[in-house]
């Protein structure tokens, strides 16, 4: 943690995204207050625009990971190819013969 809270220097951060009626949220907050293991809690109402933005961020993150994985697999497959000289692919032979 950034600073000591109730003489504790370490803890876990948990984020829960859920749809619940107001009554359930009130019951959860009450349970958090009574539980000694919960040092702090924060309840936030997320609107539809925020959910769309979050989905967009996740999509862009997945695309970046996918691109980096493709680039990595491409560079690994090129390691076995001979460097320089003639093109040894079938298309290269046809081109070299003409």
Question: Please, could you describe this protein's structure?
Answer:
- The chain has three helices and no strands.
- By secondary structure, the chain is mostly helical.
What's the number of extended β-strand segments?
0
| Category from helices, strands and their pairing | mainly alpha
Distance N to C terminus:
69 Å
SSE topology string: HHH
User: Main sheet?
Assistant: none
Uncertain segments are 88-98
Q: Work out the radius of gyration.
A: 27 Å
- DSSP strand (E) fraction? under 5%
**Mean pLDDT value:** 78
What kind of oligomer do you see? single chain
- Overall helicity: 40-55%
Global morphology: elongated
- Number of helices, counting only DSSP H or I runs of 4 residues or more: 3
Q: Quick gist of this model?
A:
With 98 residues, the chain is mainly alpha-helical.
What descriptors fit this protein?
98 residues; 3 helices; 53% helix; elongated
Helix-strand layout with pairing:
Elements: H1 22-34, H2 48-78, H3 90-97
């Amino acid at each position: 943690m950034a600073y000591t809270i109730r003489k504790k220097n370490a803890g876990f951060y948990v984020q829960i995204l859920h749809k619940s009626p107001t009554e359930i949220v009130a019951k959860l907050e009450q349970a958090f207050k009574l539980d000694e293991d919960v040092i702090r809690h924060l309840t936030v109402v997320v609107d539809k625009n925020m959910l769309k933005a979050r989905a967009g961020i996740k999509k862009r993150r997945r695309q970046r990971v996918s691109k980096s994985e493709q680039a990595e697999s491409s560079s690994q497959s090129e390691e076995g190819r001979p460097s320089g000289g003639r093109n040894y692919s079938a298309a290269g032979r046809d081109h070299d013969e003409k």
